[in-house]
Amino acid sequence: MAVLFSDDADFCDWLKSNPNGFVLNVAKSLRENYVVLHSGNCQWFDAGRFVQGALCERGYKKVCSDEQDDLRDWVRTNVRVDGAFTATCRCVGDAK
After folding, report:
1. pTM, rounded to two decimals
2. What distance in Å separates the CA atoms of residue 45 and residue 39, rounded to the nearest whole number?
């Protein structure tokens, strides 16, 4: 099941509990040209790198799941009819 986060604290808690999961970084407006897949342990989501609110509370939201297929289904329902990610972070290759 995919979970949408718009709060940094909740998102960081999910990451701690699901380091082997996957994260979609999406624009708050759900633009179909920005749907980026990351692993749950991606360096971009180190809360110490950002000011509070920068991860999920401003221009971006995070959608998380243990399964990439759940994220594709979420994209298909909410952003793009093809369910495709627009990019995949190199960290996903490291997570396999």
Report:
1. 0.87
2. 10
